[in-house]
Design a protein that fits this description.
It is an enzyme of class 4 (lyase). This protein has 306 residues and is α/β, with parallel strands linked by helices. It has twelve helices and ten strands. Bound molecules: pyridoxal-5'-phosphate.
Amino acid sequence: MIFDMKTPLIKSSKLSELNNCNVWLKMESSQSTGSFKQRSIGNACQKYVEQGAIKFISSSGGNAGISVAYMGKVLNIPVTVVVPKTTSQRAIDLMLSEGAEVIVHGDSWVDANELALSFVNDHAVYIHPFDHQYLWDGVAEIVDEVIAEGIRPTAVVLSVGGGSLISGISQGLQKHHLDIPIYAIETVGTASLNTSIQLGEHVTLDQVTGIATTLAAKKVCEQAFRVSQNNDVRGLTVSDGETVRACLKFLDDHRTLVEPACGATLSVLYDQKIAFTETDDVLVIVCGGASITFDQLSKYTVELSV
Ligand SMILES: *Cc1c(COP(=O)(O)O)cnc(C)c1O
């Protein structure tokens, strides 16, 4: 492997004690680009290069775009990322620092994505942020690593945006014959999967709101919806304030700064929203996120009166 993808598996004393079980943190925040996207996007980029790609195109202003930019640098492939005007300067700077060309275009992701797609041809490949088998294959390796360390989880807790994380984890669990509950966490303003679970149909939200922009997909991918219908997937939503509180606590307890998208998952453990038992080994995917600074987290704290 030309980029390090193996992440630490840490037993959290604090969260284990709080939840009266064994809480195992899979630290995807330790990836080179700060999130699990390094696995999903990393695997897709490698596969496409093997198939002859000579350019990568992305329209993600978040962690997916940052990982595509990084992979371009590692694989020596030019990258163009088209992002909407709403994209944070920090995300743009991170992509530029990996050597990617960044084009700021349009007021929304739909506009940026349209321009990005116009650049695609037989050799310039579009890297989808969450909806492709190659992405899920990369994510599934998280479960392989946990099993290799001798832990057989009895439940998984993870965040859901467009649904590549839950799709890949579910695939990994199946491979190891682990038929266990998956807790799918979203914020109230980004609850596309939770709403679909409740209604029993694959819905598109009219709008997505709040600070967890990394989770802001109006509709999850078909595979994620299918996973929710065919497995023991239990949805939970949390408030933006709860995500920020969890980010702050996690910073103190584990000295790691994560995005609200990840704080969402951590908050259900800090706030003891799930009843676990002493024999449970709970796998928590610390999905990470690069679009956060201590300064930004402090601003959220003030804005949301946390
Ligand atoms: C992409 C991402 C998510 C959401 O993952 P999906 O595969 O889109 O559901 C959550 N947290 C972080 C930090 C991410 O980068």
